[in-house]
## 1
Amino acid sequence: MKNNMKEEEGTGAAVFESPVAGGAAAVMAGGKPPKRKNRYYTFLGKTYKKDDTIVGLCFILPALILGCIFVITPIVISLAYSFTDAYLLRLDEVQAVGFDQFVKVFKDGFLWNAFGNTMVFVVITMPVQLCVALGLALILNTKIKANTFFRWAFFVPVMLSLAVTSFLWGNLFEHDGLINAILIKLGIGEQPFLDDPGQAMGIIIFISIWQGAGYQMLIFLSGLKNIQPEIYEAASLDGANSVQRFFYITIPSIMPTFSFVLVTMLIGAFRLITQPMIMTQGGPEDGTMTMSYYIYQQGITFRDVGYSSAIAMVYTIFMSAIALTLRKVTEVKD
Amino acid sequence: MSQAQVQAAAFAPPKKNKKPWTAARIALSIVKWVGLTLLCVLFLFPIWWMIVSSFKPQTLIYEQLDSFMTFLPSTWNVLEWFTSYGNLFNSFDYFGTAILNSILYCGITVFGVLLINSFAGYALARLRFPGSNVITTIVILLIIVPVETSIVPQYVILSHLGLLSSPVARVAGYLLPSLVSAFYIFMFRQYFLGMPKELEEAAEIDGAGKFKTYFVIMVPLAKAIFATVAIFTFMGAWNEYVFADLMFPQAQQKPLQAFLQLVNTYNPKDLSMVMAALTVSTIPIAIVYIFCQRYIVEGVSFSGLK
């Protein structure tokens, strides 16, 4: 056994010619324990392995560089620009304006309109989509042939990108499109749909749920699958009825999944931009202007980077507060 | 519960089906199936209509709009179905280019994301070095805190770096920001943390260097997570619209999703061609979903459980 190991070490050192580890292995094969001093060093009171540091830094470096440039720096400059009058075409002459941009944020009527629209979207989409997804998952959880078909059917819209969904439904809701043709046939009459400020947001809510519900259904189904059937059996033997089983077994079991879905959906809903950008360009009468789209428009279209950054900062604080609260509220205590 | 009872429970058929068929249960069952079918129609008819309409000329689409014929192909000569698809390539010089662009951008993104984020995830999971804990904390913070600062400051940085100055630079400017993701780093880290350390230690005793250990031992064992991240990255990159729309004003550089805008707003509009373009841009995603369903479900449940 011992001989065997030594042989392996020998071949290992011969095959792998990595300078650092190969050398160490060669020393080990020679039977001499390596000196601890050389392989370890201390930094700020903590001891690290030299090998680990060199390799670790090499491994993390690409992500670190890209992350610093494209993740950290945007946050930092966004924060910095929010106190200035930065303009996209002359970023070399930027003047500090203190809290002026933030004051403007709270006085801007168009922004409050965009905020209101986003909240309407969030408040309607979230519960409806969650109910549809969870309901479908619960109904389709048993393994019979028809359920497999239905699972696929409800999942098909998820395969469409947000852009495709928006273009497709945009055409369906044209004034001479399919939906109006059906409505006329049914005797309901033509609707203005995307030309009407009230209906346009309703349509965006509808198509978002239509596109997204299947995905959450899949997440819930995978959560439900993890519940051991024995638990239900045991509960049944103890005399629990189906309602009790649902509230005392199903709901607690999928709570972690539910919490995750809730927070991801919420952040996604707060960031609604693609659908209004493609279908309505924020109109009619700013009826579908959302926060993300407004930030984009201020920064890119109107080139007011300073103001756009200030809105983004305030909105980030708002979103984080809600997301973290939700996370805390729905957190499962082990 | 004894062992025998557990086994009996596991192998016993579901008890639900043994209940008698009362009128209430029959009614409930009918409501359930009718409801499911209606909902199913609602979920599927737009996509069905999209595909069928791409198979017939625009004049026929409008003619048949108020009859049930709108949901059926106008001809059973299958070759004629693809007229609009051919027109798409004839009317738009860069439609083929857009498909190639999408493939190119997605390929680079998937490759880069896998390499960079798995490296970082491994480093954070297994290698201790000064700053590793700080970086882990930042990664987790970035996942928890929804920062709404993406596009505008990123655009500013890209202009500072000169990545908006030429068409080639714009491609780099489009691709580079998407290569690093706190979420994927975290996913890789969690996966590597869950793998047994003994394998690497054995490899190290055999004299393999850390790089070799990573590529020869860890990557093959972590195939599942690589596949999952690759699929999710591919779908994200393929479906990306807003940033592509901003970065590529020129038609010959647009990826497929952004190119759809040109097809949809082209004057005179050809609805059949629009539907054909939408169908074409969905096919790759559909293929990925159909063939990689296992990984998608795994990835979903993995991210769901964190």
## 2
Amino acid sequence: MIIDINFIGLIIASIMASAVPLILASCGELITERSGVLNLGVEGMMIIGAISGFALMTVTGSLIIAIFGAMLAGVLISTIFAFLTQTLITNHVATGLALTIFGIGISAMIGKNFVGIPGKEFPVLFEGLKDTIPLLGPILFGHSIVFYFAFALPFITSYFLKKTKIGLIVRAVGDSPESASNQGINVRLVRYACILYGGAMSGLAGAYLSMIYTPQWIENMTGGRGWIALALVVFSTWNPIKILIGAMIFGGLTIIQFHMQAIGVRIPVQFLTALPYIVTIIVLVVISRDSRKIRLSTPSSLGKSFHKDN
Amino acid sequence: MIKIVKRDQPSRAIFFFTPVLAIFLTLVAGGLIFFILGFKPFEALKFFFIVPIADKYGFSELLLKATPLCLIAIGLSFCFKSNNWNIGAEGQLTFGAIVSGGVALLFYEQEGFYILPTVILAGAIGGMLYASIPAILKTYFNTNEILVSLMLVYVSKLILDYLVVGPWSNPEGFNFPETRQFSDSAKLPLLFEGLRIHAGIFLALAAVVISWFVFYKTYLGFQMKVSGFSLKTAKYAGYKGKKMIILVFLISGACAGLAGVGEITGPIGQLHREISPDYGFTAIIVAFLGRLHPVGIIFASLVVAITYLGAETAQIFMQIPKYTGQVFQGMILFFLLASDYLLFFKIKFMGLKK
């Protein structure tokens, strides 16, 4: 059997493409969690980004407005979460759940008029170089700008957290809000910023789904990716580089089901579709079993409210 | 001038007042949304909240929808009171329905008094089994129960899909994704001629009474309360944390499983693809809105059930998308959480003083 080497390249590229929304949302959530805030609303913010991007693209015709609009929509919806958890000191878990339920509802409401409308073609970069290098050509070239951004993001995030002063402040706020506050850092402000940033990245992840990956609007089209992104943050033990690995595994699982169906493996399609969710559970178990390691890498104040008395 | 002062003690009066405030604020915000969408706000709210329950049939539908919400929320209150975040009740409902549906299919075209109790019990066991997964993983493998229970929701829906499309699909069903009709002995009896409300409501009421008793009259209820306030205190008092975690998950799984039984053995009488319009998720809101109190949960389940009916009526009469229901549900929780601020802080309005 001869396997075209470029075909393998194409498969890897498609795995990477399906990993993009996970990387974006996870890296955003990672920053939020590093500041000590657990935002379970990723799924909701993502779906809001998806409908906003698609709607803006259809209405304005501008891809740039659509992409940035989706990020802005993510920021706006996460502002609700930030206001509730930081200003009104509500429970993170409950507020995040409300955000997801609300987001799915709102997106379906707005999306009603956009069902069945075909998407637009999103421009890709370096299309011509695709055939120049075997195997690597299709992996490296011919992708959207969001794709390249997503694969740079874990490295940028890592650099930001480790090497920049603001990154240090974010980590300080997450690990010990009391001492950060005593050092004169405005804990609430930092957390607000981190939540809104997470919202922007989730919004972008959603826009990628509805504008680039499968250019159309389908209700509930995020299909649990927001939750898998949350699981990936735990998987990564809050290390951005490991998000890349995790996202590739999940991207791989998604793509493999298509190919297994294509070559006629006789496993019910539902079992293949369930695979990413089951693997998420298994991976979480394996990662969390070592409770000491998890405790060391989890931001100490994660999910705990901080309120400074005047 | 407005000044915010921390209360010495959370206010008990406000504890029960804020859910009402939250519902009121949701109505205001909902009216605003309808206005933005280009409808007359009052008329839309009327279609949403009053028209659906104006007649006998509507009221029966309200109880029909409130039953699973109440049942699941009662179960969840066990988890939430003791700081266990089971958000996968939808999965436990689905799995309970699968197990009880499977048992009901075993008794296909058979009659007997023992069939219904067996079917109901199977549903509770199914829900418990499914809830035991996140519970065991949490207690023995330190795994986050939020993510596990949620992932299992997707898995359970896919299992159901596989069964009703594949091995369990009705042989005479022209490939519709549904099973055969259960025999009459496997169905919960309907309470009134021509209405869909069924005996499942008694399961919910029983759950209310039992939970009230457990919460306020037993040592277990006390332990749960203490663990909810502070895990450290619970440990210091020597409570067996692991046992309790598993127990509360099993209880809430059983309740969700029973809700699943009600959905398939009630008016529908078969397994099909979409047995629950996200009751398991909505019940989380019900549990909070009811303040994790059995009686509160009854009221909350009725209020939230209206959003389901209202969304349907509004869709028929005003072409408002049915997802408005979910928007309302999300808003109720937002406003409830927000108004909890008043529990801990007083807002003082003071005159301008120099």
## 3
Amino acid sequence: MSTTPTETPVETRSTIGQSVPRVEDRRLLQGQGEFVDDVWMHRTGHAHFVRSPHGHARIVSIDARRALSLDGVYTVLTGDEAKEMCQAPFFQIAPPPAGKLEEWPLAVEKVRYHGDAVAVVLAETRELARDAAELVDVEYEPLPAVVDTVKAADPDAPVLHEVVGSNIAWQGTYDWGDIDFALQNADHVVEIDRLHFHRFSSTPLECNGAVVHWDPGTNIVRISSNNQMPMFASMVIGPTIGVASNRLSFSSQDIGGAFGIKIGSYPQIAALALLSRKAGRPAKWTEYRTDHMLSAGQGNERTFLDTKVAVQSDGTILGFKTRAFDDAGAYLHYEPLGAVIWTQVSPGCYRMKHVHVEYTETLTNKCPTIPNRGYSRLQHLWLTERIIDIVAHELGFDPVELRKKNYVQPEDYPYETPNGCVYDSGDLPRSLDIALEMIDVEKWRATQRELGHGSGKRIGIGIGSTLDSGTNNFGQARLVNPELPFSGNGEACYAKLDLYGEVNVNLGTTPQGQGHETTAAQVVADILSMPPDQVHVTAGFNQQQNTYVAFSGTYASQFAVTGLGAAKGAAEKLRAEIIELAAYALQADAQDIELGDGMCSVRGDAERAIPFIGIANMIYSNNAVLTPEMRERLSLNCRYVYTPPFQVPDPESKRGNLTLTYASQIHAAVVEIDEETGEVEILDYAAIDDCGKRIHPQIVEGQVHGATVLGIGAALYEAFEYDESGQLQQASFYDYHAITALDTPDIRVGDIESPSPFTPNGAKGMGEGGGAPLHAICSAIQDALSREDAIVSDSHNPWERVWRLVHSGETGEPRGVRVTSGGKGDGA
Amino acid sequence: MVDEGTVQAIEFTLNGEKVRATVESRQLLVHFIRDTLGLKGTHVGCDTGSCGACSLIYDGKLIKSCMMLAPQADGAEIETIEGLARDGELTPVQQAFHEEHGLQCGYCTPGVVMAATFLLRRTLNPSEEEIRRSVRGNICRCTGYINIIRSIEAAAGATRAGGEEAA
């Protein structure tokens, strides 16, 4: 007999916090993933949308005869026909008058942006469908377009939706604290004329797609797609196409990136359902990249006018007021939720007590916006970060010290913001110290000083401080429309012991690379005391098979809380049933049963044991051994819905706890600017992410990398711009420079771990990342500019714009900022 | 539907096996491989040869298969992602991507892995600059390229240590 000590009891082995091998990798590395374009059905036709070349035009006529004359073209569906087949336009979140806006699966009467779909063709091959779409003759009567959100709010602007009466999608004032009092009594008031946060998109590498089959046999509409929020899509399209949700069947396996953009494919999916119904065939649609750039959805563009900041002489920032104009594009897809979602982070990372925002969201002749990584918060956080840097620049404060002075301090948590949101935990000053240490800030400050005038180069050091608010309270929808019956949040999980004692898990989520199969297995395995590779988590989502709630999907930095919270709850229920059955079989007390590696045994008596297969046998194929009461109650099929502890926020005061967790990001960037060309090169970069307890550190780090590099891309290279007539200037990866491996700097990643006191596992949702690189790079460029230069007022800084900034002192370009001192601010 | 004149008979080698097929002259090579031959690992991410998701190895050279027509496969030797792992055993490049978390959603991954394999067949001592250049034609929107670069460095190291070929 061996005398070596026995191993640690298997029950205590946990992989939480360990980077176990990702389950998803093997199939993806061998080309065995199943993405939407890999799905085929019998008699499938290929769909191609006919899109508007105009930004704004009346549809005079559509003639599909030439297209239909081609052999192999099955059918063409136009906007009027689609409307005829529908029961109602898409549901609108906005209250009237914008809520009266009518959007149908295809454009009716008018096109409102470059890329608006007027018809869809179904044909035997991809190529033929594309050719036939070219042959659909559409006569347009062009109309004046409006592409600027501030101009769109003007009463004289061309109106996109006549029924609304103006281009105002939503308008309201958020007023917390007493900003007028603060401005009147502050030592200094800093006034910033205009700040502009630009349009861009995370442009997932896999475009949108769907195979939709309106099955005449069962009357079920089968939708294989890569939509990332299928329950939202179901709730929007079901009433429009007249199909009850129990006859809609969304499914997806692998999704090639989404970042929020793939919430927005529902209008096309609705059109495909009608097309399939008309043709009596499945309709397969794989978006081309150009279609994606034109119409898949772009991130929110926001302009801040007349910002006034109240600052004390010691650097305390009391608060600010601003007029925000958000550009929703031509239709409201998920908007105007963006008009409230930024309030999750109203004072940014700072202890500002007075926040006043007059918020206007407008409709413009541009692609509809859709939530893009950091949705609505990153625009606002960019404002708060610009405020800090501009105040520092104008009043001569050190931007590091100014941040530290105004940050929410570690002892302040849980910290309630002026509008009643609760920041759960964190340590911002320490995160900043770590970031500055990682880039060796002292060395760069010395280099900056040494680099004399006339060297042609400038060094700038910048900081981005952001919050990635996760697990949001859908009750915030009531702040934009009190009539909406939404509140709370949640996710569902199903855990079962299968016929031979195997563990199976499914969830309502639609992962796109976040490793849900891996981390859900870790959580369930931990509770059932078994290795995670023996827990099978269903890949992807299937509406007819998986469990779900209306909030299900993968979006808004919440899986680590909602998804894993649900997995934990379902596994705990399953564990309780297993233990009860084991105790019954072994004639032992339930409290003496321990689990390990698929066995249940009596503590201290290893001979008395039953494997999971024996437990499963009692339920599935040997139930006469159980009491009638046990047969009725136990099933080894356990569903759990995790729900965060939210209340309904108050639409009057616009106060309430809108989000459960706040992961924080502190980024530090060192840039070098070439004065002759305006080129910005990143010399060093550090990213600190505090997202509480890490279930799988490698996946967390991967998310930090991804969010950081997409943010750098947006700051320097990526922008969607429209000309005055509404033509998109960047409709392919030639014009839209998606950041590459050659543009990416080395990134130092550091972490600190402030567990959330509010979540089942101490984790915080993460992954969106708050857009910290946009802020850090703008901050670094600002740092490289002199007091005579204009301020950094745009979130996108390509070479030309930086060149203008660097030379603005010589060219006499307005600086865009003023300071009033002496407690006589005229802010009110 | 299809004119007689637009169809062409071709013969080529795909992942070591002879393939004979009749193809439409205008069909893209990537659509022929995916839709006709059913190898779904080669992906499409753009219409313009920009993103590299459709990268494969053609007569020993790395090419983007959305920029070639199916008839151009005639007589060629083509390797796709499906041809790398044999009997389920990952190549050093695939293994390194797994260990270094060089993939998230996995959509760009086949193209990136083919580009990395192509690089390591030419050199097992690539500099970081050479590694970055080797995947400059591959767009990845998830990883920020950082773990892709680490994966390729690790694959080169593992291959050197093992005295093997990259794939």
## 4
Amino acid sequence: MKKLVFFIYAFALVILWCSCEKRVNIEIAYDGDKLVMNTFIQPDSLIYVRVTRSVPVSVYDETAFKEEAGAQVNIAASDGSVLPVVLQTIAGRRFFVSGMPAKAGLQYNISAASSGLQAVSAYDTLPAAPQARDGSAQKSSTRIKFILKDHPGTGNYYRLRVFTVENNAAKSALLFRLDPAFNNNLIDIIANGNSTSLIMDDSRFDGRELTFVLQTQDPINQSDSLMVEVTALTHNAWSYLRTVALQQGNSGVIVSEPIRVFSNVLNGYGIVAGINTKQLVFKVD
Amino acid sequence: MSLTGRLLTVLFLLSLPLQVLGWDWQTKVTVVVQHQSLQTVCELLEKNYGIHFSYSRDLVNLSRKVTVTVHNQRLKTVLEDLFAPDNIKFTRVGDLLVLLPDNRTTRTINGYVKDAATGERLPGATIWSPTLKQGTVTNQYGFFSFTTTKDTSSVVVSFIGYQPQWQQFPQNDRTIEISLESTTHLKEVVVSGTEGNNLQNQTQMSKVNISSAAVNKTPRLLGDADLIRTLQAIPGVSGGMDGVSGLHVRGGSPDQNLILLDGSPIFNFSHFFGIFSLINPDVVKSTDLYKGAFPARFGGRLSSVVDITLKDGDMKNYHGDAAIGLISTKFDLEGPIIKDKTSFIVSARRSYPDLVYNSLIRLEDDEKNEADLSAYFYDINAKVNHIFSPKDRLYLSFYTGEDKMNLHLDSTSIPDTAKINMISSGFDVSWGNTIGALRWNHIYGPRLFSNISLNYSTYSFSTQIGYKYILPAANELIDQVGTYRSRMEIAGVRADFDYRPSPDHGVRFGTAVNIHDFKPSMSTFADKTGSVTPLDTMANGPQNTAAEMLLYIEDEWQLTPSFFVNVGIHASGFLVSGKLYHSLQPRLGLRYMLPKNWAFKAAYTQMNQYIHLLSNYGTSLPTDIWVPATDRVAPMSSRQVALGIAKTSNRQVYEFTLEGYYKNMHNMIELRDPMGFITPDLLRWEDQVSVGRGWSYGGEVMVAKKKGNTTGWIGYTLSWSTRRFADINGGKIFPYKYDHRHDVEVVFNQVLSKNWDFSASWRFTTGSPMTLPVASYEGIETGSPWDPVSGPGNSIDRYGNRYNYRTENSHRLDIGINWTKQRPKWSRTWNFSVINVYNHKNPFYYYVKRDDEAKQRYLSKVVILPILPSVTYSVKF
């Protein structure tokens, strides 16, 4: 009798949960080639502008994003200055690099044009530097602490990343999450997931100085030193990074509405946004 | 009769002391006379109770001989019985009881219609005078009041599924109970021509009644008959994604449905993530679905009312059902507590995939630790009712239902000193409704009926997660527990009155006060081993208490022999956070009789909804959160116009309806960005939604066969439903997520023989809107190519206009066959059902797949409902 029950039940469950997947022969239309302009502008750093071209959704190979080496890129600051731009190849990829660093307190307007494509433009300001200090961690532990003082009264946005450090250089990114007791996001506990970056706003700690506790996926054994990178973001940068993370987390499933990645580039795609990074390098105790 | 005999027959008994000092209508009197004139009775009352009668012999004739035997009865009742046949009315003037001729030309009969076998009262039964072409319908409590010409002595009483019968009226206008015999108890089904149930005799349009039998006849998914799945086969109702018990009525969203269980609202009407309805269909007496033309007594939602009436319980005999299917088992039992006075019904249902799962398959994690899995739903119904008197009846009903899932894992492996080791982890999630109602039905007189009710309904979602990890090398213990809860409550008192002042008017009026309590998104965290104080350990969403008040009145009015109106108004107010929202919502229904018994109908309704649902996915999920209207997000409102024609054929075999509608909706909300399933910080939800408008319009046709061995219906819907939000899709109009242009439903039931019956349903739906990306492009992660981790940016999909594509058309054939063996005292039934007989791969959802093997990206669809057979065994006793 038990075998019969098993058979009936297993049959039904197999049928039910054998939800199948099938390729659909719908050609996904392409909106046509558009210029893609990407840059995060860091104060006191040169501006690296990447200009590429969009591709149809069906294109599998990510390296197919064609660089627009012949594009005309202009970088203008709100003080009226125009920054010289040169094309450089760095680590095999081409960037339009400003001839002088960006200055805090200015707004930058960047435009790009390439033959046969509609010219694009975007602008953003630069955020103040984050007030982060006192990074610490213990060997064989999973917790990293640092203190962050938030600027009061304004909406502030941050990205956190953690790297191992060898020979005074960051080597590899660690998988981590904000200790769930610190961001009150139950889904973090449920998912028990870790990532290489955390995007957040200051709605839970506006104007406060507090100790952040990060929880690494694995015990800290790899390195004598660690680096916590705290990056202040403009609203544009935060919107972009947050929606990129959501789109990737959604894995293309469109049972819900798809996540639209924020873009402030007029007539094209991409992002031009200000960031301000502070790196806390410290010895592991 | 001799003089001696006459003298001997005059008996007078006085059981109470003589009340010569005064009397009132409640005075208990005892009168026993045989074949004496009314005048003699009056003299006796005067002599023994000091009641002085005053009347004119020219106007009032008291010569009729009567035989009376009453003991300790109310004076008024005795007088009503004495004088009603002679049309004599009486009134008190000082200490005199004045008799006057009653010149009324009408009479009012009132009472209840009930099932002869069980005593169950029958809502929607028709009382019809074929000669006068007049009639009325019992209300949802089975009560009727029929005012007709004075010489009307009998009517036809009918109800679908019951043998129509001629009912003789009593001479006086007292409360009567009419018993109808179910045709299922008869060997032969007799179809009799009565016109009362005909669609052309009802001003109400856009309404469909679903009987419990209709639900149970439909093919079953995993062995369970389902109410909402049956409603989805009605024109104008869409189910959303394939296999889900969604309810999208005339382009409205699921939060715009007012679902009432014995008058109490339900906030989430599904089990198992929307696969099954909340309620065991075996305890449902009837269900009315209003798609539009809402009567004034309903309010609070924009798009539909699903009014579910549960069985009251058999007043005469004990009986019940028990069934076992693939996914659940259930039983119900009903019977008298005091025969013909008090009855009860109780039912329970539990699903058990977890029991089989745990016994057959064990879950293991990567470390081979075994997990205890529990995943099931249950629901329990209980109802008791008591008849205090022919005019008073009390109902007490209770429902609770819950979905629960638990997963607990305890480590059995030896800790690795260099790694993080799990000691234990646990995850519990549950959600469900609890509903209670106390109702009192009272008849004040032949023309006035009331239902006073106290209602309570709550929906809650709760989850708890905890884990313990140990890191031996650092002597670090991680012991954290988090909880998240969300709750919505409503409690209220409601009074509904049904007043039938004349044959041309049927007035309903009432009032209600409801208190809403919103406690969304309450979370707590405890880090038992942490040394640093976290940000905070508890976060709450916007908690609110709101008061809702309403008043309504409606009149079913016959203006001319062929022109009828139902005019009403629903006034309501909603007080929340010190702000009062209010609205006046007119309701109008018109009916004009066309030649050949066709009725032309029209309706205009305005509706208001003071609560919004924060939902990510356009279909009901347990984590959805209700929030009240605020300064920035005003209450929703809608206006709907409907036109149509309807007719029931002469022998009530066929029904035909054709309706068109146009509805606009204001102050709807939509999330700009998905918030995630569980969002702890809801305090700024107003910043995350866009407020906009919606429109829906279309036409529905339905041809139904209601009687005979072959029954069923064919329905077709042509519809459009669109939305516009300032911050979404660039402010341009876009279709509603479940905007289907064409819907076809065919429902077929066939009695094959004494033991066998067959059912089938086929539905076809054109594709739903979906949004596909229009390009891909390179993203960026860092500001400088010299940054620590820098490389090619992620590939990003670019989305253009919302809903730039439509999914494939869906269609599915479901069949079911019942074999029933009737025994003298019980019966047993085997049901075999097959869902999606020809295994059509209807899409559940689509996504753009990155196929690393084929090195391609393409659109892929996921199908969750392939061909799915099931079997259910049930016994009925």
